[in-house]
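Researcher: Last one for today. Full complex below.
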Amino acid sequence: MEEFVENLKSRFAEGILLYQEREMPVFVVTKGCYPLLVKALLEEKSFQVLLDITAVDYLRWPEPQPQRFELVCHLFSLDYNKRVRIKVPLNQGEEAPSLTSLYGNASWLEREVYDMFGIPFHDHPDLRRILLYDEFQGHPLLKDYPWKREQPLYEEIKDDPNR
Amino acid sequence: MGVSSPFLTTKIDDLLGWARGYSLFVYPFVTACCGMEFIASACSHFDIDRFGVGLTRFSPRQSDLLMVVGTVSHKLAPVLKRVYLSMAEPKWVVAFGTCAVSGGIYHNYSSVQGIDHVIPVDVYIPGCPPRPETVLEGVMLLQKKIAQEPRDWRWKSSSRT
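Model: Here's the assembly. Have a good evening.
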């Protein structure tokens, strides 16, 4: 595994912004490098399981961050029993590459990220909200979403004369 | 006793109120953990059937008491509305538990802050979750309210237009 990480670091030298050895290897990569790195992990080291895709909003982070968002993706290799974390810093409104061509379950995970954070994925086949309803205004996991903001009720409820 | 005497009609009102109060068919709209307490109230230790509220129906068409037990999210609100509208009148609504009463601890993006934003409510039972004794108290309050209601229940919908 270690030599494979070294191999990846040399192959994607311009794409990997930072490499950390934590409880698992952590790659901080540019968004152009992200699908290529995942593809290499999948095809060469059998990281067949996409555990999760989520995001972090660094808006109120103690130290200001150059990019507001960070997409976080976890992969798991059944053959080697290894995990890998990949982070992609993103600006607000910036489109992220989709992993749907590599992993089937990426579709729903990316829809959740879109639903909660409003991060668009540019080659996603079906980018809709997944947990919330279409009329929902805003994205609730953003740090600037007011915690006690109340959503308006559905129009059909509000305009019902029997209420 | 002439036709103009109100004696007979008020007595019929009393009789109907009494009969309706003690033959409530419940539709349990159970969405969350309060459902456990609803089950506790319905089972033999507390036995809500002693008060005539024991017959649980799982179709809103056959029931006349809608018990909203648990948190109602914005996504679920139209469903609750539709269930309420499917019930035949006379019908009553009980908000069971703090979440149904006011949203409770779920003051967040997803929860309706009390089901009275969506449908009219007759009795509010607070508690997180309410003790079965509280539920029985609420049921008795509702029966008192039903007993006092005039026979013509149509004021319910007409007053809200």
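The interface with chain B takes residues 132-133, 136, 138, 140, 145, 147-151, 153-154, 156-157, 160-163 of chain A (CB under 8 Å). Chain A is about 25% helix and 25% strand.
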